[in-house]
Design goal:
The protein has one domain: Aminopeptidase, CATH 3.40.630. Helices cover about 20% and strands about 30% of the residues. A hairpin with a 2-residue loop joins strand 4 (about 65-70) and strand 5 (about 70-75). It is an alpha+beta fold and about 170 residues long. Bound molecules: coenzyme A.
Length: about 170
C-alpha cells in the first residue's frame, strides 16, 4: 500500500533532500542555494517538507518580507520557493504544502503572505493581486503574478507599500 502524504516541518536531517528537490524542480541551483542561504542566516519563518513514508517529495519555505509603507513597516511573509520533484508534480503535493503552510502561519499569528509566481496557480489558495492593496514588488513584475493573501481580514496595511525581501533573494 502506498504511504500517505505527510506535511511536516523540516529537520536538520532533511537538508540535503531539500536541496535536491529544489535543484530538480527548478532545473538549476539558484533556488536550492537561496534556501541554504536563508537557513544559514536565520531567514526562515517556516520550512515544510512533504513526505511519502521516508521519501521527501516536496518543500516549501516562508521568509520575512515586511511591507514598507509611508506609515512604517507591516509584518508579511514571502512564500518562496515551493518545489515538488518532477515525477510527483500534478498530484496535489504543492497544494498540500501551500494549504498547510498558510494554516500554520495563521495559527502563529501572521497576517499577510506575498507570492511572486505563476498567475494561474495561486488564486486557488485565495491569493489576489497585491495591487488591490497598493502593495508593490521591489522589482518589475507582471501585475497578475505578484499576489497577496490576508490571513485575517484587514491584515494588509493601510496605504500599501513596497515588499522588502531578504537580501538572499538578490541574484536568484
Ligand atoms: C509549481 C509546483 C510547486 C506545483 O506543485 P504540484 O504538486 O505540481 O501542484 P498541484 O498538484 O498541487 O497542483 C497542480 C496544478 O498546478 C498547476 N501548475 C503546476 N506548475 C505550473 C506552472 N508552471 N504554471 C502554472 N500552473 C502550474 C497545474 O497546471 C495544476 O493545475 P490544475 O489543478 O488546474 O490542473 C510544482 O509544479 C513545481 O515544483 N514546479 C517547478 C518549480 C516551480 O515552478 N515552483 C513554483 C515557483 S512560483
Amino acid at each position: 500500500m502506498a504511504a500517505d502524504l505527510v506535511i511536516r516541518p523540516e529537520t536538520s536531517g532533511d537538508i540535503s533532500a531539500v536541496r535536491r528537490i529544489n535543484e530538480r524542480a527548478f532545473g538549476r541551483p539558484g533556488e536550492a542555494g537561496l534556501v541554504d542561504s536563508l537557513r544559514d542566516h536565520d531567514g526562515i519563518i517556516l520550512s515544510l517538507v512533504a513526505t511519502y513514508g521516508v521519501e521527501i517529495v516536496g518543500h516549501i519555505l516562508f521568509s520575512p518580507a515586511p511591507v514598507v509603507g509611508e506609515r512604517g513597516e507591516a509584518d508579511a511573509v514571502a512564500l518562496a520557493p515551493v518545489a515538488v520533484l518532477p515525477e510527483h508534480q500534478g498530484a496535489g503535493v504543492g497544494s498540500a504544502l501551500i494549504f498547510r503552510g498558510i494554516q500554520m502561519l495563521r495559527e502563529a499569528g501572521h497576517g499577510l503572505v506575498v507570492v511572486l509566481g505563476h498567475r494561474g496557480y495561486y488564486p486557488r489558495f485565495g491569493f489576489v493581486p497585491a495591487s488591490r492593496y497598493g502593495i508593490r514588488c521591489p522589482f518589475e513584475v507582471p501585475e497578475e503574478a505578484f499576489r497577496v493573501l490576508e490571513l485575517y481580514e484587514g491584515a494588509a496595511p493601510d496605504g500599501g507599500g513596497v515588499v522588502r525581501y531578504r537580501r538572499e533573494f538578490e541574484g536568484v
